[in-house]
Write a structure and sequence with these properties.
The protein is 54% helix and 10% strand. The longest helix is centred in the C-terminal third of the chain and has 21 residues.
Length: 143
């Protein structure tokens, strides 16, 4: 390898890292603060006066840290190799992270510690009629 190629690769990687550093990947429920589904999801995630906490976003990331680490590492490896752009890497991380939360809900790992547990469906995220699981999405923002 000649020095010019090494320097060009370094500059490309440095530029990609700087661009990626300015991105935030948000995963959660899409909707404004006044949205009914956002209010219901917030009540499930953190609990309120009537509902016990039934975390599905934080709990999924806590339970699946290894998978999340692989998602991030895989996307960043592709970016550093020059196979994908920082925008595409961030979008890939976001999409796969949202899927992780949906899978967590699908696997019924959000079991409510309340009278709801007597029902045949063990996760209230399906029972509310708001389709919280289907509203899990991501957004990449430049900070």
């Amino acid at each position: 390898m000649d020095i010019d190629r090494i320097l060009a690769d370094f500059e490309r990687m440095q530029s990609a890292c700087k661009e990626m550093e300015g991105k935030k990947i948000l995963v959660g429920i899409v909707g404004g603060a006044d949205s009914e589904v956002v209010k219901i999801a917030h009540a499930h995630e953190y609990g309120d006066g009537k509902l016990p906490e039934r975390s599905f976003i934080r709990a999924s990331f806590d339970a699946d840290q290894g998978a999340l680490e692989q998602i991030v590492t895989g996307a960043l490896d592709k970016m550093m190799a020059g196979d994908t752009s920082p925008d595409a890497a961030a979008a890939s991380i976001g999409a796969q992270s949202a899927q992780l939360v949906q899978n967590f809900i699908d696997e019924n790992r959000v079991t409510p510690p309340s009278d709801y547990s007597k029902k045949t469906q063990k996760t209230t995220l399906y029972e509310t009629g708001t389709h919280i699981r289907d509203r899990i999405a991501f957004k990449v923002v430049d900070s």
